[in-house]
Design a protein that fits this description.
Elements (H helix, E strand, L loop, with lengths): L7 E5 H6 L1 H9 L3 E6 L2 E6 L26 H9 L3
Parallel strand pairs: 1-2
Antiparallel strand pairs: 2-3
Length: 83
Amino acid sequence: MEMKQNQHQTVSLKELRENMENYIQRVNRGERFTVFRRSHPVFTLGPVDSAGNDGWETVVDFTTIRKGGVPLAQVKKAVAGLE
């Protein structure tokens, strides 16, 4: 039986732990789950928004400045010079 992509389901924390790989695959297909522990909802598990609205914002990508990134000491020095 194939699940609809936006269908929201429930799963126990124990079931999730015991079958994590299965749930990762299902989330990658678009399914969402509310995870319960002792009959109380704990968190929601679902795919990351591919439209870029996932709560993360890239402020600076130091790998574009130098392969492998920039040493922290160099970043601190540059930031200190801005104050």
